Amino acid sequence: MIVERVLRGNAEAFGSLVERYRDRYARYALHMLGNREDAEEALQDAFTRAYRSLARCDDPERFGAWLFRILVNRCRTLGARRGRRAKTFVFDETALLSASEDHPAEQGAWREEIDRALQRLRPEQREAFLLKYVEELGYDEMSRLTGVGVSALKMRVMRACDRLRELLSEVHSA
Amino acid sequence: MRDDDNVKIRDVARALREPVRVDASFNERVMRVVRELPKHSHLSFWRRWAMPRTITVRPLAASLAAASLVLFALVGLWHVSDDLDRAAKPIAKAIFPPKVAPEQHVQFVLVAPDAKKVAVVGDFNGWDPSHLGYQAQHRGGGVWAVTASVPIGHHRYSFVVDDSLWVADPTAPRVVDNDFGTTNSAIVVEEQR
Amino acid sequence: MNALKRALAGVLAAAATARAQDVRLAQRLDKPTYVAVNAIVDSARVAKLPTAPLVDKALEGAAKGSDGQKIVLAVHQLSVRMTSARRVLGTSSSPDEIKAAATALDAGVSERDLERVKSAGGKRPVTMPLAVLTDLVGRQVPIATATTLVVQLSRSGVKDPDLALFQRNVRADIDRGADPTVAATTRARGLVARGSTSKTKPAQ
After folding, report:
1. Mind telling me how many Å the CA of C19 is from chain A's nearest CA?
2. Chain B window 9-48: which residues touch A at a Cβ cutoff of 8 Å?
3. What is the pTM of this model?
4. Are the beta carbons of C62 and B129 separated by less than 8 Å?
5. How far is it, in rounded angstroms, from Cα C115 to Cα C118?
6. Does domain B103-189 bear CATH number 2.60.40.10?
7. Which residue, A158, A134, A92, is CA-closest to B15?
8. Where are the domains of chain B?
């Protein structure tokens, strides 16, 4: 068990955990924060905090969920600190964090619109939407992750969906 | 609208679920920081097993005691199934004498309508706002609450709102904290008989 | 478990706790601060003072983003206050009492006042009376008045749950606009007159 090896003093073993969880959580951080630099910062910060406080991870089998919780919090802090960005980085094949390279141009434009609309959501709605629809978590798990009650989360998801539809319809009708 | 609403959201979600590639240098950057940090020791490993965590089973006693200082809204029977804790308890009893400070479940409540996150921090959890088990849940109407384990004895604590704002418990005894410029709260947790 | 095993287990527990505390400090403090704080904690351990409050103070400072110097100063000052507290309360005082007394000293309560609260309580633990005293002082009841009230309540045999109730009532009165001294004095008088225990006569 990698977590236990790290706790016994094998710091290098932590690299395997970074490898395992990096991409999936990079996706969340990028969509949540809207740009590569912030996402990288949040992700790196989350990993180092997780390493520092690894002894407090109650269940090594659920390290991923525990790490994710740290990342969700880091994204909140970073998001609050940096405020909303007028310009967001959304799709750039040459960037460090990028979507799959086999996107044709028109799909690229559509992706850009989605990302732009996503960044226009209120942070708590964006968070709830990503956790529900992109990370595909259940509401109970989302509640444990965020500390927010289930009904409040459902409301946020609903509002996020309404707003996204609205924003994306504007694009279509433009 | 031409499209079915749900389909559109599903399309959006599917697009967002596309994998995001991270440069391989990211791993090295993380590990460079990790290598600078103190290594965990085998005692970190054993400590997890040796210290029973949040779960204490106590018989239902008097419903309220010392309510003002302690915000006991509820002290009661608490059954939680937690595999790690069930495994930890027999090991803890074998290795350590049964003198680990007994704990009580204490409810902490803060009314903070604009908050997005509320955590309880104190000398019972190393003042760590990310400590699991001390994250308040929003109950509605701006009321945040968490029932957490606090060892019997005298403690100082505070709420941390949105990871940045330290708020003393307005309903608890104050401790003017001259060291770091904030006001903490005091709690005296007593054994339920 | 026989006596030898208990002793060994106790040593292991103490060592594990000390090591665990060191690990947390090392994780959260920069190196110079860690070294300085560790030195203070070690001295306290040698002097048989409780070390957990010192570690907690450092962790609190780290959590609040304080700079290293402030943290070291805070830990040092707490260590000094705990030394005074133990001197006043006696070597058989519990870690909780020492913590509560150190907190009261920090609020401006004098060693003389601590002594008065201690004698008024007799053999009963003074943790709760000191917590209530600290709270009253924090709510702007003059120290001399607050001490006198707490001493009177202790001498009357008022138990901890009633002290807690007293504190809550005073707080509620102050929140509603009452003068802190008037609120505290009134509530204390009522509690003493009611005689919350079957023991000693209420103080005049």
Report:
1. 13
2. 9, 12-13, 15-23, 26-27, 29-31, 33-35, 37, 39-42, 44-45, 47-48
3. 0.49
4. no
5. 5
6. yes
7. A134
8. 103-189
